[in-house]
Amino acid sequence: MAPFNPTLKTAYWSLVGFGGIYVSFLLLLLVPIVQKNFVYLHHVRLPIWPDISRPEQLGFASNEITPFYLNTPDGERLFAWHILPHEVYAKHRDELLRRDVGLVEDVTQTLGFKLLKEDDEARLIVFFHGNAGNVAQGYRPDGYRAWAGVDSSKIHILTFDYRGFGRSTGTPSEPGLITDAITALKFAMNTAGIPPSRILIIGHSLGTAVTLGATEKIAREEGIEFAGIVLCAGFSKLKTLILTYSAGGVIPILSPLRPYPIVQRWLTKYVREPWDGEERLKSLIKYSPKLKLTMVHAHNDYSITWTHSQMLFHTAASAIMALNAGVEEIEGEVDKGQRFEEIEKKKQRVELGEEGHVDTWIEGVPAGGWKIENRLVTWGGHDQILVASATRFVIREMLGL
């Protein structure tokens, strides 16, 4: 038999090598602790510099941000930032400059907290970030500045690191992160005294699943509805996400196995924490009849494809249709493909030129009832969507500014 061409031989063994590495990686992901670390990336402690207890090192003014800890009901301590509106800070700058900077023991004794609690016009954005890093990673600080700039006299921001992230204690888990999110929202409502009607929740990436988990539980158990919910670069559920997800937007996880759906389904059986946003959204629609929900996604998001936000939009529309029909859900009564086409035909679309478009669901929505939107922007990627104009427009509208 004729020997392999050396070039083909090299290519052959390279493919075998890459295949072996890929299979080994997939098998490693079946190990619970490896899977947890991959999903949350909480050991990626970025940025290493600066010191996040000294936000001034990120270009913020002295005491513009108050670093403090939130205490969860199960004994964890969550590192958090309270960010003042720029004009409020400027008005009280002299007094704030006289205060010590850095981590505070009791945030309720700070001037920043007093300015939030005593302002009847104050609005509060509570932010649930994505996986990896901490409150200061990547575009997150730029996002805070962009959001506060929507109304620099009224918008305060509360952001924090989940358990196991940054300087927070504990180890991340699905129920744990939902507890953390509820802790932050209860602090805003009960300690800071901000009514839910003045609280806007923004979730990004993993934080969109956290957002749905926390708001669904609060709506179901306490009937509380917030000013609005914004899901930036969200996903429908983890088992669906890993079929299309690319780490860093370049390294695919299970999409190379697309020709082998049986193998894909077998691997997804080993997903330990489902993060099922679709089921939680159905419940949220049921228990939150005045829900204001907007998905914002970029067409050029190569980490989480924009079709996930489309799935969430369809889930919300289907849930409204089911409630109006007096059934738990439409599933099974109409073919999925037919239902998809029906929603696509009935949704209201506004074209925004090069910017993208906005889909709104109005069928069966009573006056003052749900407002469900899906904003697809042309550019923004996975992280820069936080500072996109589309996100700021939604903030302005939902907070009534």
From TrEMBL:
For this UniProt record, give its keywords in alphabetical order, as a comma-separated list. Membrane, Transmembrane, Transmembrane helix
What's the protein here called?
AB hydrolase-1 domain-containing protein
- This protein's source sits in the domain of life called Eukaryota
Q: Which InterPro entries match?
A: AB_hydrolase_1, AB_hydrolase_fold
| Record-linked SUPFAM superfamilies | alpha/beta-Hydrolases (SSF53474)
User: What Pfam families does UniProt report for this protein, alphabetically?
Assistant: Abhydrolase_6
Q: Which residues form the AB hydrolase-1 domain?
A: 125-276
Q: Which residues cross the membrane?
A: 12-34
